[in-house]
Amino acid sequence: MTQPTPTTDEKVNNLKAIFDILAYLQVDAKQDGFPELSERLAFAMDFAEKQLVALKEK
């Protein structure tokens, strides 16, 4: 059985939630002295933000 394709609004909401989680983790990583992890999380946040912009332009 195939799963229904998420709507653009669902994708946007999911990406916003992912971004929020990554932001929370990034702040914790920075405060806890894990600069490399913080940078990787910032990279993932940047990617999620670009995906959000692309979805909103549709």
State the main characteristics.
2 helices; 58 residues; mainly alpha
Structure, explained:
- The protein is mainly alpha-helical.
- The protein is built from two helices and no strands.
- The chain has helices at residues 8-31, 35-57.
- α1 packs antiparallel against α2.
- The longest helix has 24 residues, at 8-31.
- The model has no long low-confidence stretch (mean pLDDT 93).
Low-confidence stretches: none
User: What's the pLDDT, averaged over the residues?
Assistant: 93
Strand content: under 5%
The ordered H/E elements are HH
Question: How would you characterize the largest beta sheet?
Answer: none
Helical amount: over 70%
Radius of gyration: 14 Å
Number of strands: 0
- C-alpha geometry: elongated
Report the structural category.
mainly alpha
How many angstroms separate the termini? Answer: 28 Å
Q: Counting H and I runs of at least 4 residues, what is the number of helices?
A: 2
